[in-house]
C-alpha cells in the first residue's frame, strides 16, 4: 500500500492521529481479509465483501490525506 509514499505515510502515522487510526484499522482489516481468504477464520461471503469494501474506503481516505499533504508541502 502506498509504495511510493513511504516517507509521507511514516510522517502522517507519527504526526496525524486520524491518519494513524485509519492506517491501523486498514492493517487489521487487511489481516482479517487474508485470514478469511486462507480459511484461517470462518467468514461468510457477505461479511468478507463488506470487510473488503471497508478496507478500500479506508485506503481511499488515506490516499486523499496523502494527496492533501503532498499539495501543502510542494
What is this structure's SSE topology?
Layout lengths: L5 H10 L1 H22 L6 H28 L2
Large-scale geometry? elongated
What is the terminal separation in angstroms? 22 Å
- Whole-number total of structural domains: 1
Number of helices: 3
Percent range for β-strand residues: under 5%
Largest sheet, strands/sense/barrel = none
Query: Measured on Cα atoms, how large is the radius of gyration?
Result: 14 Å
Low-confidence stretches: none
Sequence of secondary-structure elements: HHH
Residues in helix, %: over 70%
Total strand segments: 0
Determine the structural class based on helices, strands and strand pairing. mainly alpha
- Mean pLDDT equals 94
What does this protein look like?
- It is elongated and about 45 Å long.
- It starts with 5 loop residues before the first helix and ends with a helix.
- α1 packs across α2 and α2 runs antiparallel to α3.
- It has 74 residues and is mainly α.
- The protein has one domain.
- Helices cover 81% and strands 0% of the residues.
- The protein is built from three helices and no strands.
Give a brief rundown of this model.
The chain has 74 residues and is mostly helical. The protein is built from three helices and no strands.
Question: What are the main properties of this structure?
Answer:
mainly alpha; 3 helices; elongated
